[in-house]
């Protein structure tokens, strides 16, 4: 059995993530508990979804939508536990934003040209610096985009390691913790090879 990856929520909602984890050799585990999970499972995955409550990064709500307060509380608690345990964490889209806010960063509540178009992902190029992602993707890669919020100020210990042509942060990593995050969606990237490389690398963190 591969490494266990905990995802807060129900399997039916996050089927793409389960399939991506399993294809990379891991085992996705779903549940509604936050407390005590960092001691049980090998890694944490924070998937895409609605926006965080803006008060969590010191702002009034000017453009945030699809708020999920219960999920905010649960995922921030899970981050406390998995960070304390030194276990691998991967954030995707909303998950990147949760990680950034957890480490004290802030968000832009609405940006142009990165959301879906008629319900389909938007594709654009991103550029990667000398980071853990560089061996996986090279300097430039085409990724899918489905978000309207972005990092404004990076949280403590986090470094922006990938940007789009208009300067939006597309990936973060922590300076010494096994914490990675991407603003795009590797679980449904087409063609899928780059997404698969990311999940396999995530599952090997800390080994």
Sum this structure up briefly:
This protein is α/β, with parallel strands linked by helices.
Describe this structure in words.
The chain has helices at 15-23, 69-85, 94-102, 134-137, 193-204, and strands at residues 4-8, 27-31, 43-46, 89-92, 106-108, 122-128, 140-145, 150-153, 158-164, 169-174, 179-182. A 9-stranded mixed sheet has the order 2-1-3-4-11-10-9-6-7, with helices on both faces. It is globular. It is 25% helix and 27% strand.
Order of helices and strands: EHEEHEHEEHEEEEEH
- Characterize the largest beta sheet: strand count, sense, and whether it forms a barrel: 9 strands, mixed
What's the tally of helices?
5
Write down the overall geometry: globular
Strand order of the largest sheet: 2-1-3-4-11-10-9-6-7
Percent of residues in helices comes to 10-25%
* Computed structural class: alpha/beta
Radius of gyration: 16 Å
- Our estimate of the beta-strand percent is 25-35%
What is the total tally of β strands?
11
Low-confidence stretches: none
Give the averaged pLDDT, no decimals.
96
Ends distance: 15 Å
């Amino acid at each position: 059995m591969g490494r266990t990856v905990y995802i807060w929520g129900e399997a039916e909602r996050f089927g793409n993530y389960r399939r991506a984890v399993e294809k990379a050799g891991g085992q996705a585990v779903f549940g509604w508990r936050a407390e005590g999970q960092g001691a049980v499972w090998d890694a944490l995955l924070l998937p895409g979804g609605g926006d965080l409550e803006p008060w969590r990064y010191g702002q009034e709500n000017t453009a945030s939508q699809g708020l999920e307060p219960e999920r905010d509380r649960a995922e921030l608690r899970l981050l406390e536990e998995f960070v304390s345990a030194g276990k691998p964490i991967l954030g995707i889209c909303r998950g990147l934003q949760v990680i950034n806010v957890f480490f004290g960063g802030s968000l832009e509540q609405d940006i142009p040209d990165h959301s879906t178009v008629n319900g389909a992902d938007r594709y654009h190029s991103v550029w990667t610096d000398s980071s853990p992602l560089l061996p996986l993707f090279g300097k430039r890669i085409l990724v899918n985009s489905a978000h309207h919020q972005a990092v404004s100020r990076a949280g403590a210990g986090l470094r922006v390691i990938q940007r789009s042509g208009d300067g939006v942060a597309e990936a973060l990593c922590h300076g010494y913790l096994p914490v990675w995050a991407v603003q795009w969606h590797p679980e449904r990237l087409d063609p899928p090879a780059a997404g698969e490389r990311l999940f396999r690398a995530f599952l090997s963190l800390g080994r």
